[in-house]
Design brief:
This protein is α/β, with parallel strands linked by helices. The protein contains eleven helices and 15 strands. Helix 9 crosses helix 11.
Length: 337
Protein backbone atom coordinates (compact mmCIF):
# COMPACT_ATOMS: atom_id res chain seq x y z
CA UNK A 1 0.00 0.00 0.00
CA UNK A 2 1.47 3.30 -1.13
CA UNK A 3 1.25 5.96 1.59
CA UNK A 4 0.75 9.56 0.49
CA UNK A 5 0.93 12.85 2.36
CA UNK A 6 -0.79 16.02 1.13
CA UNK A 7 0.76 19.45 1.70
CA UNK A 8 -1.59 22.39 1.19
CA UNK A 9 -5.33 22.39 1.83
CA UNK A 10 -6.58 25.28 -0.27
CA UNK A 11 -8.66 24.77 -3.41
CA UNK A 12 -6.19 22.54 -5.27
CA UNK A 13 -5.27 20.71 -2.08
CA UNK A 14 -8.90 19.76 -1.67
CA UNK A 15 -9.10 18.76 -5.33
CA UNK A 16 -6.13 16.45 -4.72
CA UNK A 17 -7.77 15.16 -1.54
CA UNK A 18 -11.04 14.38 -3.36
CA UNK A 19 -9.30 12.32 -6.00
CA UNK A 20 -7.02 10.43 -3.62
CA UNK A 21 -10.15 9.43 -1.69
CA UNK A 22 -11.90 8.40 -4.92
CA UNK A 23 -8.86 6.39 -6.05
CA UNK A 24 -8.80 4.56 -2.73
CA UNK A 25 -12.52 3.82 -3.06
CA UNK A 26 -11.89 2.54 -6.59
CA UNK A 27 -9.40 -0.01 -5.29
CA UNK A 28 -6.04 1.60 -6.02
CA UNK A 29 -3.42 0.37 -3.51
CA UNK A 30 -2.84 3.83 -2.07
CA UNK A 31 -3.89 5.60 1.09
CA UNK A 32 -3.82 9.27 1.95
CA UNK A 33 -2.64 9.25 5.55
CA UNK A 34 -1.74 12.85 6.44
CA UNK A 35 -2.65 16.42 5.52
CA UNK A 36 -0.38 19.37 6.24
CA UNK A 37 -1.09 23.10 6.12
CA UNK A 38 -0.01 25.93 8.45
CA UNK A 39 -3.70 26.92 8.69
CA UNK A 40 -5.16 23.42 8.80
CA UNK A 41 -7.34 23.98 11.88
CA UNK A 42 -8.87 27.04 10.24
CA UNK A 43 -9.18 25.64 6.72
CA UNK A 44 -10.76 22.31 7.59
CA UNK A 45 -13.97 24.10 8.54
CA UNK A 46 -14.05 26.49 5.59
CA UNK A 47 -15.31 26.23 2.03
CA UNK A 48 -12.72 26.20 -0.76
CA UNK A 49 -12.85 28.91 -3.40
CA UNK A 50 -11.80 27.99 -6.92
CA UNK A 51 -12.95 27.99 -10.53
CA UNK A 52 -14.30 24.44 -10.31
CA UNK A 53 -16.38 22.64 -7.71
CA UNK A 54 -14.77 20.41 -5.10
CA UNK A 55 -16.54 17.24 -3.97
CA UNK A 56 -17.44 18.69 -0.57
CA UNK A 57 -18.04 22.12 0.89
CA UNK A 58 -16.75 21.31 4.39
CA UNK A 59 -14.34 18.43 4.96
CA UNK A 60 -14.33 15.89 7.78
CA UNK A 61 -10.64 15.24 8.39
CA UNK A 62 -11.03 13.23 11.57
CA UNK A 63 -9.67 10.08 9.88
CA UNK A 64 -6.39 11.78 8.89
CA UNK A 65 -3.28 12.86 10.74
CA UNK A 66 -3.17 16.65 10.58
CA UNK A 67 -0.03 18.77 10.71
CA UNK A 68 0.78 22.45 10.60
CA UNK A 69 4.45 21.86 9.80
CA UNK A 70 5.93 19.78 6.96
CA UNK A 71 8.91 18.63 9.01
CA UNK A 72 6.59 17.33 11.72
CA UNK A 73 4.64 15.36 9.14
CA UNK A 74 7.78 13.83 7.65
CA UNK A 75 9.14 12.95 11.09
CA UNK A 76 5.96 11.22 12.21
CA UNK A 77 4.70 9.53 9.04
CA UNK A 78 6.14 6.75 6.89
CA UNK A 79 5.31 8.18 3.48
CA UNK A 80 6.21 7.01 0.00
CA UNK A 81 5.01 10.08 -1.90
CA UNK A 82 4.00 13.67 -1.21
CA UNK A 83 1.52 15.83 -3.10
CA UNK A 84 2.37 19.53 -3.11
CA UNK A 85 -0.59 21.89 -3.46
CA UNK A 86 1.23 24.94 -2.06
CA UNK A 87 1.82 28.40 -3.56
CA UNK A 88 3.92 28.45 -6.72
CA UNK A 89 6.90 30.22 -5.16
CA UNK A 90 7.35 27.28 -2.73
CA UNK A 91 7.30 24.49 -5.32
CA UNK A 92 10.96 24.25 -6.22
CA UNK A 93 12.45 24.34 -2.74
CA UNK A 94 9.93 21.89 -1.30
CA UNK A 95 10.00 19.47 -4.23
CA UNK A 96 13.80 19.33 -4.39
CA UNK A 97 14.11 18.85 -0.64
CA UNK A 98 11.56 16.03 -0.65
CA UNK A 99 13.22 14.20 -3.52
CA UNK A 100 16.62 14.57 -1.88
CA UNK A 101 15.15 12.83 1.17
CA UNK A 102 13.73 9.94 -0.80
CA UNK A 103 10.10 10.89 -1.53
CA UNK A 104 8.31 10.78 -4.86
CA UNK A 105 6.61 14.12 -5.57
CA UNK A 106 3.43 15.16 -7.33
CA UNK A 107 3.53 18.96 -7.64
CA UNK A 108 0.68 21.18 -8.76
CA UNK A 109 1.20 23.47 -11.76
CA UNK A 110 2.84 25.75 -12.64
CA UNK A 111 6.07 23.84 -12.07
CA UNK A 112 7.85 26.81 -10.48
CA UNK A 113 7.83 30.60 -10.49
CA UNK A 114 10.98 30.75 -12.64
CA UNK A 115 12.36 28.43 -15.31
CA UNK A 116 15.74 28.12 -13.55
CA UNK A 117 13.93 26.63 -10.53
CA UNK A 118 11.92 24.30 -12.79
CA UNK A 119 15.10 23.04 -14.44
CA UNK A 120 16.61 22.42 -11.00
CA UNK A 121 13.56 20.33 -10.09
CA UNK A 122 13.95 18.26 -13.25
CA UNK A 123 17.66 17.75 -12.57
CA UNK A 124 17.00 16.71 -8.98
CA UNK A 125 14.49 14.09 -10.13
CA UNK A 126 17.09 12.59 -12.50
CA UNK A 127 19.88 12.66 -9.90
CA UNK A 128 17.83 11.17 -7.05
CA UNK A 129 15.92 8.67 -9.17
CA UNK A 130 12.63 9.82 -7.65
CA UNK A 131 9.43 10.32 -9.60
CA UNK A 132 8.48 13.96 -10.13
CA UNK A 133 5.32 14.90 -11.94
CA UNK A 134 3.75 18.33 -12.38
CA UNK A 135 -0.03 18.47 -12.41
CA UNK A 136 -0.63 19.81 -15.91
CA UNK A 137 -4.05 18.23 -15.90
CA UNK A 138 -4.89 19.15 -19.51
CA UNK A 139 -2.40 16.54 -20.70
CA UNK A 140 -4.80 14.00 -19.14
CA UNK A 141 -8.09 15.81 -19.78
CA UNK A 142 -10.19 13.65 -22.13
CA UNK A 143 -11.09 16.52 -24.48
CA UNK A 144 -7.44 17.41 -24.99
CA UNK A 145 -6.29 13.79 -25.16
CA UNK A 146 -8.80 13.27 -27.97
CA UNK A 147 -7.35 16.26 -29.83
CA UNK A 148 -3.80 14.97 -29.47
CA UNK A 149 -4.86 11.55 -30.75
CA UNK A 150 -6.38 13.09 -33.91
CA UNK A 151 -3.33 15.28 -34.52
CA UNK A 152 -0.97 12.31 -34.23
CA UNK A 153 -3.12 9.96 -36.32
CA UNK A 154 -3.32 12.42 -39.22
CA UNK A 155 -6.95 11.41 -39.75
CA UNK A 156 -7.92 14.94 -40.82
CA UNK A 157 -4.57 15.93 -42.27
CA UNK A 158 -2.21 18.54 -40.90
CA UNK A 159 -3.23 21.25 -38.44
CA UNK A 160 -3.61 24.64 -40.12
CA UNK A 161 -4.72 26.72 -37.11
CA UNK A 162 -5.61 26.49 -33.44
CA UNK A 163 -7.23 28.74 -30.85
CA UNK A 164 -7.17 28.01 -27.11
CA UNK A 165 -8.96 30.03 -24.44
CA UNK A 166 -9.72 30.13 -20.73
CA UNK A 167 -11.22 32.78 -18.47
CA UNK A 168 -12.64 33.39 -15.01
CA UNK A 169 -12.98 35.96 -12.30
CA UNK A 170 -9.88 37.04 -10.43
CA UNK A 171 -8.44 34.83 -7.67
CA UNK A 172 -7.44 36.21 -4.30
CA UNK A 173 -4.44 36.37 -1.98
CA UNK A 174 -0.93 35.53 -3.17
CA UNK A 175 -2.21 34.66 -6.66
CA UNK A 176 -2.68 38.35 -7.49
CA UNK A 177 0.87 39.17 -6.41
CA UNK A 178 2.95 39.02 -9.60
CA UNK A 179 6.22 38.35 -7.78
CA UNK A 180 4.76 35.28 -6.05
CA UNK A 181 2.52 33.81 -8.74
CA UNK A 182 3.49 35.28 -12.10
CA UNK A 183 -0.08 36.50 -12.52
CA UNK A 184 -2.60 35.20 -15.03
CA UNK A 185 0.11 34.29 -17.55
CA UNK A 186 1.99 31.95 -15.25
CA UNK A 187 -0.96 30.58 -13.29
CA UNK A 188 -3.86 30.33 -15.75
CA UNK A 189 -2.52 30.86 -19.27
CA UNK A 190 0.26 28.31 -18.62
CA UNK A 191 -2.36 25.55 -19.06
CA UNK A 192 -2.80 26.38 -22.73
CA UNK A 193 0.84 27.24 -23.36
CA UNK A 194 1.77 23.83 -21.94
CA UNK A 195 -0.89 22.12 -24.04
CA UNK A 196 0.28 23.86 -27.22
CA UNK A 197 3.83 22.68 -26.52
CA UNK A 198 2.52 19.17 -25.75
CA UNK A 199 0.53 19.05 -29.01
CA UNK A 200 2.89 20.78 -31.44
CA UNK A 201 6.31 20.90 -29.81
CA UNK A 202 8.30 23.95 -28.77
CA UNK A 203 7.50 27.00 -30.92
CA UNK A 204 10.29 28.84 -32.73
CA UNK A 205 9.25 32.18 -31.28
CA UNK A 206 6.34 33.82 -29.47
CA UNK A 207 4.54 37.15 -29.53
CA UNK A 208 2.22 38.25 -26.72
CA UNK A 209 0.10 41.22 -25.74
CA UNK A 210 -0.82 41.61 -22.08
CA UNK A 211 -2.77 44.02 -19.95
CA UNK A 212 -2.68 44.69 -16.23
CA UNK A 213 -6.03 45.44 -14.57
CA UNK A 214 -5.50 44.49 -10.91
CA UNK A 215 -2.74 46.49 -9.18
CA UNK A 216 0.40 44.41 -8.58
CA UNK A 217 -0.90 41.26 -10.27
CA UNK A 218 1.14 41.30 -13.48
CA UNK A 219 -0.69 40.63 -16.74
CA UNK A 220 -4.34 39.79 -16.11
CA UNK A 221 -5.33 39.51 -19.79
CA UNK A 222 -3.11 37.92 -22.44
CA UNK A 223 -3.21 36.98 -26.10
CA UNK A 224 -0.24 35.00 -27.43
CA UNK A 225 0.85 33.78 -30.86
CA UNK A 226 3.14 30.79 -31.31
CA UNK A 227 5.24 30.62 -34.47
CA UNK A 228 5.94 27.27 -36.15
CA UNK A 229 7.98 26.76 -39.30
CA UNK A 230 5.14 24.93 -41.07
CA UNK A 231 3.00 28.08 -40.95
CA UNK A 232 0.09 26.93 -38.76
CA UNK A 233 -1.59 29.82 -36.95
CA UNK A 234 -1.74 29.14 -33.20
CA UNK A 235 -3.15 31.57 -30.62
CA UNK A 236 -4.03 31.27 -26.92
CA UNK A 237 -5.88 33.78 -24.77
CA UNK A 238 -6.55 34.01 -21.05
CA UNK A 239 -8.41 36.51 -18.88
CA UNK A 240 -9.07 36.37 -15.15
CA UNK A 241 -10.95 39.68 -14.94
CA UNK A 242 -14.32 38.19 -15.96
CA UNK A 243 -16.45 38.98 -12.91
CA UNK A 244 -20.20 38.89 -12.32
CA UNK A 245 -21.88 35.63 -13.27
CA UNK A 246 -19.28 34.58 -15.87
CA UNK A 247 -17.88 31.67 -13.83
CA UNK A 248 -15.17 29.68 -15.61
CA UNK A 249 -14.66 28.62 -19.20
CA UNK A 250 -12.02 26.72 -21.16
CA UNK A 251 -12.10 25.54 -24.72
CA UNK A 252 -10.38 25.22 -28.08
CA UNK A 253 -10.94 25.21 -31.82
CA UNK A 254 -8.40 23.44 -34.03
CA UNK A 255 -8.57 23.49 -37.83
CA UNK A 256 -7.19 20.65 -39.95
CA UNK A 257 -6.81 20.29 -43.71
CA UNK A 258 -9.92 18.08 -43.77
CA UNK A 259 -11.99 19.20 -40.79
CA UNK A 260 -12.06 20.92 -37.43
CA UNK A 261 -12.52 19.98 -33.79
CA UNK A 262 -14.18 22.28 -31.25
CA UNK A 263 -14.31 21.90 -27.46
CA UNK A 264 -16.82 24.17 -25.69
CA UNK A 265 -15.85 23.27 -22.14
CA UNK A 266 -18.08 20.21 -21.93
CA UNK A 267 -18.51 18.67 -25.39
CA UNK A 268 -16.06 17.93 -28.20
CA UNK A 269 -17.64 18.42 -31.61
CA UNK A 270 -15.84 16.91 -34.60
CA UNK A 271 -16.63 18.46 -37.99
CA UNK A 272 -15.07 16.59 -40.95
CA UNK A 273 -15.17 18.56 -44.20
CA UNK A 274 -16.79 15.77 -46.24
CA UNK A 275 -19.26 14.11 -43.87
CA UNK A 276 -21.66 14.98 -41.04
CA UNK A 277 -20.20 16.17 -37.76
CA UNK A 278 -20.47 14.19 -34.55
CA UNK A 279 -19.87 14.40 -30.83
CA UNK A 280 -16.74 12.58 -29.64
CA UNK A 281 -17.00 10.02 -26.86
CA UNK A 282 -14.88 11.06 -23.87
CA UNK A 283 -13.88 9.32 -20.64
CA UNK A 284 -16.09 10.40 -17.72
CA UNK A 285 -13.03 10.92 -15.50
CA UNK A 286 -11.49 14.38 -15.26
CA UNK A 287 -7.85 15.14 -15.87
CA UNK A 288 -7.38 15.58 -12.11
CA UNK A 289 -8.30 11.94 -11.53
CA UNK A 290 -6.41 10.57 -14.51
CA UNK A 291 -3.17 12.45 -13.82
CA UNK A 292 -3.01 10.97 -10.31
CA UNK A 293 -3.64 7.49 -11.72
CA UNK A 294 -0.72 8.03 -14.08
CA UNK A 295 1.59 9.34 -11.34
CA UNK A 296 0.72 6.56 -8.89
CA UNK A 297 1.14 3.89 -11.58
CA UNK A 298 4.59 5.33 -12.36
CA UNK A 299 5.55 4.99 -8.69
CA UNK A 300 3.97 1.59 -8.09
CA UNK A 301 5.30 0.05 -11.31
CA UNK A 302 8.56 2.04 -11.46
CA UNK A 303 7.73 3.46 -14.89
CA UNK A 304 9.08 6.73 -16.30
CA UNK A 305 6.92 9.86 -16.14
CA UNK A 306 6.89 10.39 -19.89
CA UNK A 307 3.49 11.95 -20.69
CA UNK A 308 4.24 14.80 -18.30
CA UNK A 309 8.04 14.65 -18.06
CA UNK A 310 9.65 17.29 -15.80
CA UNK A 311 11.93 18.41 -18.65
CA UNK A 312 8.83 19.14 -20.76
CA UNK A 313 6.90 21.01 -18.07
CA UNK A 314 10.03 23.08 -17.30
CA UNK A 315 10.11 24.03 -20.98
CA UNK A 316 6.57 25.39 -20.65
CA UNK A 317 7.79 27.81 -17.98
CA UNK A 318 10.54 28.96 -20.36
CA UNK A 319 7.91 29.64 -23.03
CA UNK A 320 5.77 31.64 -20.58
CA UNK A 321 8.80 33.73 -19.63
CA UNK A 322 9.37 34.45 -23.33
CA UNK A 323 5.72 35.51 -23.63
CA UNK A 324 6.16 37.84 -20.65
CA UNK A 325 9.22 39.39 -22.28
CA UNK A 326 7.27 39.89 -25.50
CA UNK A 327 4.38 41.54 -23.63
CA UNK A 328 6.82 43.95 -21.99
CA UNK A 329 7.90 44.95 -25.50
CA UNK A 330 4.38 45.38 -26.92
CA UNK A 331 4.22 42.05 -28.72
CA UNK A 332 7.73 41.91 -30.20
CA UNK A 333 8.67 38.40 -31.32
CA UNK A 334 10.92 36.59 -28.84
CA UNK A 335 12.96 33.64 -30.14
CA UNK A 336 13.15 30.43 -28.14
CA UNK A 337 16.37 28.43 -28.09
Amino acid sequence: MLKVGLVGFGFMGRMNFDHYVKLNEDGYPITLTAVCDPRIEELKGQKANGNMTTAREVYDLSAYHLYRDLEDMLANEELDAVSLAVPTYLHAEMACSLMERGYHVFCEKPMARHSAEALKMAETAVRTGKKLMVGHCLRFWPAYEYLKEKIESGEFGQVTAGYFYRGSGAPKGWLVNDELSGGCMMDMHVHDTDMIQHLFGKPDKVSALGRNVLPGSGYDIVSSHYHYKDGKVINAQADWTLEGDFGFYMGYRVNFERGNIVFDGSTVRVNPNSQPGFRAYLSPHTGYYRELVYFLDAVLQDKPVSVCAPESTAQSIEIIEAEMESARHEGAWVTLF
